[in-house]
Amino acid sequence: MPDPAPTRFPCPWLGRDVELTRERELHIEARHPDLLPRHRLQLAEVLADPDVVRCGARARSILLVSRRYGDLPRGRHVVVMVDDDLAAGAWIVTAYVARRRVDAEVVWRRS
Question: What is the pLDDT of residue 97?
């Protein structure tokens, strides 16, 4: 049976949708069960209305999109790592809950 179509989340900051494949969703559920499946709505909110967008340290196409939440257990920030490849599209690599902001170059910050 083939994998279901990827879930698409609107990301106005990028100007396009970001895909979450079933394989990446299973990865996040296995590695970061404090985020998925229970906080799936926050994943969509982070992409739709982030607080901060940072550039990944290893590749310029990797973006760390984050938003602060006061009601999450074991952390305050939801971070969504997006690979934004102009030719291939934008897709979620991973996502997690962090206690502190990620230390990386800020590309955009909500004013």
Answer: 93
